[in-house]
Design goal:
The protein is an alpha+beta fold and 155 residues long. It has one domain: Cytidine Deaminase, domain 2, CATH 3.40.140.10. It contains four helices and six strands. A hairpin with a 5-residue loop joins strand 5 and strand 6. The protein is globular and about 45 Å long.
């Protein structure tokens, strides 16, 4: 498979399945975002280790910063469906501005930590401003994350 980012490990081609399907699902979710204040529409789609796909979009709130990120919305959908057994395999993120321009957006710091909670070995794809797609290991986005021990949880 073709690598879509530089680095020591070869990563999957973003145009190949299942990445293409995740990117389409993320784009669809971004179109449903509630962003009346910033016009910043973000969609995320994740694939669980179970094979199921879950999506989320950002939701703004007039009481800034009370809104929610697309990535954590997708995680919430996955946990709702699969419970504590949910584990993350891959995530795609797509963002658009108010004028529908593609924005280069990787998950924010809070989302990176939330993602690590469910799959430190997951692959993350995000679309760039020129519509190129970067795929990186989650560990590259948050190299020195912390981990609290969870009683009875297998990681």
């Amino acid at each position: 498979m073709k690598s879509t980012s530089s680095g020591p490990c070869a990563l999957p081609d973003a145009t190949a399945e299942p990445w293409a399907a995740l990117l389409v699902a993320a784009r669809t979710a971004a179109g449903r975002a509630y962003a009346p204040y910033s016009g910043f529409h973000v969609g995320a789609a994740l694939r669980a280790r179970s094979g199921q796909v879950y999506s989320g979009c950002n939701v703004e709130c007039g009481a800034l910063p009370s809104g929610g990120c697309a990535e954590r919305a997708a995680i919430a959908a996955a946990v709702l469906a699969e419970g504590a057994a949910f584990r993350l395999e891959a995530l795609a993120v797509v963002a658009f501005s108010a004028d529908n321009s593609v924005l280069a957006v990787a998950p924010c710091g809070a989302c990176r930590q939330a993602l690590i909670e469910f799959g430190a070995d997951a692959q993350i794809a995000f679309q760039g401003a020129q519509s190129e797609v970067t795929i990186v290991p989650l560990s590259a986005l948050l190299p020195h994350s912390f981990e609290l021990p969870v009683a009875g949880a297998e990681r």
